[in-house]
Amino acid sequence: MENGVLDEVYERLRDTGPERDGWLSNHAPMAAEALVRHGHGGQVHAWLDGYADRLSERPRGIQRISAGEWREPLGDPVRSGDWLTFFQRQLGERPWREVLIEWWPRLLPGVAAGATHGLIRVGHAVRALLDGEPTGTVSPARVAELAAGLGYWAARWQPLAPAGKGPYRAGDPRAALDAVPRVPHQRSGIRTRLAQLADLPGWAESAGAVPGDEAAGVPSRLDSIVEAAVLRYGTHGHGNPVMLVHAATAPNAIARVLPVLPAALWEPSLQAAWAATAAVTSAYSPAAARPMPGPGAADAAGLMARGLHDQDSHGIKFIDTALDVHRRTGDQAVLDVAAYANDLIVRG
Which UniProt keywords apply (predicted)? Predict the structure, then answer.
């Protein structure tokens, strides 16, 4: 039944655009996928009813994008409708894994697209596709959702300032995040903040120094980056409760796609995940840490129900990522941070 509900959600959202009011992302398909996955399929349509006023129509196309002439329109948001149609066509003609593997290395350098939401939407769509495969429910609606995520990523494609080529840090990811330099001007939007990275002393070295032991392997190192970003939110999330969510959800989206990718793409995926986490950290972290309030006795079973009750899509997606981390580690602190994050976001 849950699989059927998710397909209904995707069908319901098929004609909606990836953004509204310029830069604000459509979080509905991502949050709804998380709610269904965690057992709240029975409430997801009501949640969508409450989100409906934040949805816009799918943008119209301007000019057809051909498979051999994609470079020029890459990163042009005016061509959003064209990119959505392009990937709809590609995924209608070829297996979804084949299209994803072809486009992943093209899109990955633009990881900052839509404040990382292009990547995150693809991560949710891929998880839904993988979840459906064992039961034979790889439906057209799920393939269409992947097309929408890839189209959004391509239209908002935005590279970060180049990373350096320094040695890998031997330290843990949390220490590496603490060492990321902050952009000097933090009173503007994400594009302005990220533009400062190119001239920021220490940025190239930090972004190029992926933390962790190389011998541990890419999946383990990627999981450690996600865990560090979740836990660091507990002491730094107050700096910008909404935007700092993406320091954790962006690399986790890459972790969700990793099983589909050939091994040759794992290392660049890890590098992009770290660069995205470091960039969001640099752009939005406060100057000083603040102790998190005492543990709220959060439990895994009730955490997503709390997110559903409070109805904030960023809270839902952060809880979703935290539950991934908790499933691997069993760390109660992860659940407490997720509960704290949800409260910060709702209050803010």
Answer: Oxidoreductase
Per-residue pLDDT reduced to its tens digit, 176-196: 999 999 999 988 899 999 999
pLDDT number for residue 33: 98
Phi-psi region of 142 (alpha: psi -120 to 50; beta: other; left: phi over 0): alpha
Segments forming the whole domain that contains residue 208: 161-348
> Angle at the Cα of 150 (from 147 to 152), degrees rounded to 5?
105
Contacts of 300 (CB under 8 A, 6+ apart): 323, 326, 327, 335
**Residues in CB range of 245: below 8 A, 6 or more apart:** 233, 237, 314, 317, 318, 341, 345
* Tally of domains within the chain: 2
Do both 110 and 146 map to the same domain? yes
**Which of 185, 293, 285, 174 has the alpha carbon at shortest distance from 236?**
285
**Judgement on whether residues 72 and 201 belong to the same structural domain of the protein:** no
pLDDT digits (tens, 9 = 90+) for 48-93: 999 999 999 999 999 999 999 999 999 999 999 999 999 999 999 9
335 by Cβ neighbours in 10 Å (0-12 / 13-18 / 19+) ranks as buried
**Residues making up the chain, counted from first to last:** 348
